[in-house]
Amino acid sequence: MCGDEPVVAAAEAGFQADTFIAAFVPFPGMDGNFLRVDTRPRPMHGCVTEFDKSGADEPGPRWVSTSAMLTDLSDSLTTPQAVDDGWYWTTDNDALEWEPDRSWRLRQIVASQLSRPSSESSN
């Protein structure tokens, strides 16, 4: 509720609600962004959507189910395939981390090398 007015959201799963409603089951997230399962009725019942603190659920469903999401994650971990719009895994610091694309780490290394002062002295 906002004030005394009830929140009005689409009654069908998969449709944008523009706010968080009781029919959403959130996954842990960070910085106000997380995934959630839409438990509203209709054909998209159980779909997985990102929920953002500023954009709410604008992008729409990412997966049709948690099973589809877990299959994509598994495929990404066992093949050179990105998950969810270009995220690849890495094990920096012996922990599983996700990077936006395969060249991200290389660009970071190159940028750090270019920003270091030369160790050779000039005459």
Assembly type of the chains comes to single chain
Number of helices: 2
Report the sheet-strand fraction.
15-25%
- What would you report as the Rg, rounded to the nearest angstrom? 20 Å
User: What's the number of extended β-strand segments?
Assistant: 6
The secondary-structure element order is: EEEEHEEH
Unreliable segments of 5+ consecutive residues: none
Spatial order of the strands in the main sheet? 1-2-3-4
Largest sheet: 4 strands, antiparallel
Structural class by sheet pairing and helices: alpha+beta
Let me know the average pLDDT.
82
Short summary:
The protein is an alpha+beta fold and 123 residues long. It has helices at 66-78, 103-115; strands at residues 24-26, 33-38, 48-52, 61-63, 88-90, 97-99.
